[in-house]
Amino acid sequence: MTTPTSSFPDVSVVIATRNRPELLTKAVDAILGQDYPGAIDITLVYDQTEVDAARNVNTPGRSVKATANSRQPGLPGARNCGMANSVGEIVAFCDDDDEWLPGKLRRQIDELSAHPDCAFVTTGIRVTFDGERHDRPSPVTTLSLEHLLHDRTTEAHPSSFLFRRDLISMIGEVDEEIPGGYSEDYDFLLRAAKATTVRCIVEPLTLVRWHQASFFSDRWSMIVDAQRYLLKKHPEFHDHRKAEARIRGQVAFALAAIGDRRKECLREVGAVVGRWPLERRWPVALAVVSKAIKPGTALKLAHKAGRGI
What we know:
Layout: E1 11-17, H1 21-32, E2 40-46, E3 57-59, E4 62-68, H2 75-84, E5 90-93, E6 99-100, H3 104-114, E7 118-129, E8 132-136, E9 142-143, H4 145-150, E10 162-164, H5 168-171, H6 184-195, E11 197-209, H7 220-233, H8 241-258, H9 262-275, H10 281-289, H11 295-304
Helix pairs in contact: 7-8, 8-9, 8-10, 9-10
């Protein structure tokens, strides 16, 4: 793993986008407005939508390039396409509905410089949902593999990801085989934590918008397949009862939300209880499958508290 060749290395930012022009403008402006002396280039990858060439910008130290997703349709392919079309020795992601807060980039580069063994830095997040705001400082300063197995650590959001480009040669690209691209960011974090030190800036420096327009908010069958894919890909989950129960609790909730897979949901709930009866998601899954609460309502209540299921 190499270290940056200067105090302010070139940074390539990848934004995968689809049908969010107004939010995309805010995301781009927040990046270009970062108080960072080094060069920043942004690659906008238009996924399954027409490329807006008017977005292209080329000024000293700052550039924006719009391109079509030439890889597999979906978020993982779009992220990989963006990385392949950029050259900065530091890579960062930002979702098209999120924003970097002032000082984010400079703080992360300083963190990399201060920790030569580190190749990956995240930040705390500020969550907005339904008119409410929740600051979510990172609960840790270093994300270990064991910590990530037990806790997805929502604060380590993909819009806060920043890493040395040569990390990709060690862990591979974003996984395009994950069903629906769901949890691609979590899988990427798990692989990174196996290969390098992942540092976390505690302060919320990334604005994350949760909203009902999320492309993943109600794709329950895909979520079931994706989480089971994750369990199979990372056998470490099976060595930790609580960690495995957490993922299977999410599967149970998604099965309950589908509505016509009641028996499968109940079997999954039984498996969760058998692994870790204190897992908090199985009672919610039972409430949904018994129609005591609608899945969308449960999800909305969690989001209003700044949490996810």
